[in-house]
Structures are given as structure tokens and as C-alpha cells.
Amino acid sequence: MEIINKILDKSSLTVLVEKLNASGKEVYAPVNKKGITEFEKVANLQEMDFDCIATKQSAKSLVFPKVEKLMNFEKTFDDVIVKNVDITAFPEVIAFGTRPCDAAGFIPLDAIFTTDNVDEIFKARMDKLTIISISCKKADDFCFCTSVNGGPGNTSGSDILLTEMSPNEYYAEIITEKGKSILDANAALFKDSAVVDKTPLVAKIEQQFTEEVINEKLKTLFESDIWDTQAMRCVGCGACAFVCPACGCFDIQDETKGKDGVRHRCWDSCGFKLFTLHTSGHNPREKQAQRWRQRIYHKFSYQPEQQKQFGCVGCGRCSRACPSDMNIAEHLTQIAKG
Amino acid sequence: MEQSNIYAPYKMKIEKITEEAPLVKTFRLKFMNEQDAENFSFRTGQFGEYSIYGEGEVTFCVASAPTRKGYIECTFRQAGRVTKALANLDEGDIIGFRGPYGNIFPIDEWKGKNLLFIAGGIALPPMRSVIWNCLDLRENFKDITIVYGARSVADLVYKHELKEWEDRPDVKLVTTVDPGGETPDWKGKVGFVPTVLSEVAPSSANTIAIVCGPPIMIKFTFPVLEKLGFTDDNVFTTLENRMKCGFGKCGRCNVGKVFVCKDGPVFTLTQLKQLPPEY
User: Fold this and answer.
1) In this model, does residue A301 exceed pLDDT 70?
2) Above 60 in pLDDT, residue B1?
3) Which residues make up the CATH 3.40.50.80 domain(s) of chain B?
4) Domain residues for A118?
């Protein structure tokens, strides 16, 4: 649909969040707890941390929880009773105050779970998610969205994008049908607006490389020793994958208590040795460098080919979280120049 | 209404257990729900996720042929957590199965050709599905040769079926065991599969070679086939990588841009040569 342009006063925004809560939707927004900002369920806007550049973890757990039930089972004397997870019971969720990169992260994630074979559990959560993002007024040294086809005021992935025009006024772009249904239900809060040039309102983030150049370079770099050099300090902790908004790799594990049990899906990481280890002891990606190479190739070569989506949105979370100071933007710049 | 869940297994009853070799068993599985049995079909080369509720899932090919209706079979060696738990089950016990997943051996395209099957150790099960599939459609193919090797005589799986193949006039079976693995009354060959293959030296003319075995066997078998004149398009193999989902989502079984689960597990040597060596 064509983007609808509106203006929302700060006071109206406060009312909007209250009304969304009152309508039974669960609203998640960045909340600062003891110095760490994460997406938490909020009742009102006062709880929200508007200043945070990027929450420590991405918003992906709203549709792809860290640990998620796939089914329950109960063992009886001579049978097993299996109960599928009830996907109709998932709540309507609003991701509020996501950054454009967070919103963009749902696109490759959705592509993983719904291309070819549809993962009904993921799709049900995604269908019930509405994303109301806020453009970035500031960025830090880890941000590189403009190098991966994103930007501090980019609308991709968001249902509504808010951009602060003044401390009391937000420019609201209504992007999707989901966004429009929120507008329609709260029409009185929104004022009409012309198209606003967001450039002076958002952060300046210098472009360091392009996805297309990385993609092209990777065609000949598989056997390069660049992977050994870059991964030398990688400790294989997997933090990069856990904080990444676009990483969708998972493990399936059973948990039992007496005769009852649950089959879970849990986050996993290509950085872990166990990820690919065969029972025989053979490991196709034995070295950390091979696993680092897989991470880069998956995001910048395989995903564009398999799902027509790059698997990185330039949020910089992996670099902020890395205990050994790996920096994906620097590594990608090196690849682009190499 | 029953919701569909891509991760939901069929409930299967273990109808028959066959001890094949030390730590190796074959399960014959029947669908407990008649509707599931009717709706289910698979083609040779495909695999599934077998599960014990409470222990987890494990990936095996379907080891029976699609021409044998009413059941599926899997053959496994006890090695990890799930296979050890599977090995403790009895006939009549219930397990889960979801599938079939993956691509197939294109046996329709092999009509009128000679077939050369080369398998090593516990890699005969995926081959057994396609062997029986082709034997059940015997008139479609010309000469059928099977070269099968294991570490020792005891480690040969499907011993009764090897006997059956040996006795058939329309199958040439060559069995071998690794040096030191023979018994005093062993009548087969002694030597590694690639060496035995070059001794047997089957003609590559109008022949499809299907290879499945441990990575080391595969590595030394391909050059022998090349020497015998096989082109890469006429050499097929089936890969195994660690898997969880079975349909291209969990992210671990990829070899370069292809998922073994979704784009494989069957590949020609031509396709394999285009992939990085991550298997």
C-alpha cells in the first residue's frame, strides 16, 4: 500500500500506547533495567527508554523465542499422547520503539521460516506482530545499517515508522495494512501531514561498503586465509548469533519430567563446534575459522541466493556483544577492500 | 480442527526388530493411524527424523524400498543418545517419525542402464532402499552390480539379503572386508572398497554408479570411478550432515549454498564438485 503520512503529538503517542494495551495487545518496548536496555512488556510510555541506540538483544524473541515449545507429550503405559502447541492462543503483540534495523531484521528471519516450507508456529507469531519503529536520531561506532541497504529512517519491515520532529511531535508513516488498522482504530490521535524530509531529523551514518560488493567478493574468497586471520580471536561463544535480529538457526531438544515432556526449539549458533559435529566425530566445520566463514557466507552469499534476502541489517549488536572484540563492520570492510 | 505443525511426527509402532551386526539394528515401523498410512508416500533416497519422546530426534534414511508397501524400515548403529535409547526399545513400542524429506535417486532416468552400487559399512541402508527399488523393477535395468565392504565379517549388515543377492542370477554381488576383518571361512574378498572396485573393474559404458560410504571411502572411490571412465554426471552419492529440522530451517546441514536436507541428500559428482568440501 501507499504510505500514509500523519503527525502524532507526544501526548497522543502516550495515549496510543495505553489504548493498545487496553485493547488486549501486549506492548513491548525498550526498557532500561540497571543500565541494560531490553525489550520488555510495558503498560505505558513512561517505562520506555527513548535514548537507547540499540537494545542489547534484538526484538526477534517476540516471534522466535529463545526457547519455544513445539509440542507436549505424555507417556502412558502403552501409548504416547502428543499435543501440538496451540498457535491460535498466541497474543497480539506490538513491538514499539524498535529501530529501523530491528524492523528490517524480521524480513530475513521471516524468509528463513516461511520460504518453501512454512513453519506454522513462527508464521502465527509473525502474523500477530505489529511493528511500530522510531527512526534513529543518533548512532554509535558499531552502527552500519547504511552499508547493508538500511538507514536510520528506513521503513522496511516496520508497520508504522515514527520520526521525532520536535520533543513534542512525531512524524508517523503508516506503511502496511497492519499499521493502517492501528491508525483506523485510533484515528482521532493522528493529524494529517504532508511528506516530511527525514534527512535532517535522523542520524548520519557513513556508508562503509555495500552488500553487493561483499556478495561479489565472496565468490572467490572461500579458500582465502582471511577467515583464519579474522577468526583468530573468536572464542566461539555464539553471542553474535544470539543477539542478531536475523539469525534463525535453532536446535530441537526434549525435556521430560516423569511421564510428561516438552519438545523445544532453542536458539543455536553456527559458531558452536557442536552445531555440525557428526556422531562419528567427523565435523564438516571443524575449525573456528570455518565457522566464522559460514557466518559471513550465510548472511551475504547463501541467504541472498536461497531467500533473496541478505541476512544482516547492520545493527552492530554482534560487535557490541563480542567478548573478544570482533567487529563485523571492520571485517566486512576488509573483505570489500580485499 | 487439528492444527498442522511441521514438527509433528507420525506415531509409529515397531513391528519387527532385526539384529544386523554388533550394535546395528533394523526396525520395521508401521503407522498407528490408518489415515497417516494411506496419506504417506516416499521415494527412494529420502530420509526422515525418527524420535523417542523424551530423548530427541535422529536422522536416518528410509532403508526400505517404496515398492514394499505398508511399512518403512530404518537401520542404525548405536552411537549417540537417541540411537542408544532406540536400541533399548522392543517390538510393540512407539516412536515418532516425520518425513519424508529431501530429494530422490532419479531411478526413472536410469531405465535401460547398468547399475553399479558401491557401499561401505553402515552406509548400505540408504543404498538398500534404492537397490530393492531397482530389483523390484528389474526389467527396467540391465546389469546390476553391488560392491559392498565392511570392516569385518561381523560388521556386514543385511546378511540374509546379501545371501539373497548372491544367489540371484540377475545380480552380481562382490563383498569384501578390511584386511584383518576376515574369518577362516570368509569366501568374499579382503581389501578396502576402492581397491576391490579397481580389481572388479566394472565397465562404465551405459552405467550409473551409486556410491555411499564413510567420507574416507568416498574420497578414494571417486578417482577409481574416474579411471574406469565414469563421467561425473553418472556418479551419484547421498550425503549426511548433522540435521535437526529436515527442511532447510535449522541451518546446520548446509554445504555451501545448498542444504543437504532440502536440496539433497542425493547429489551427482558434478554437483558435488561445485560445492565446498564441508561434508
Assistant:
1) yes
2) no
3) 107-238
4) 4-337
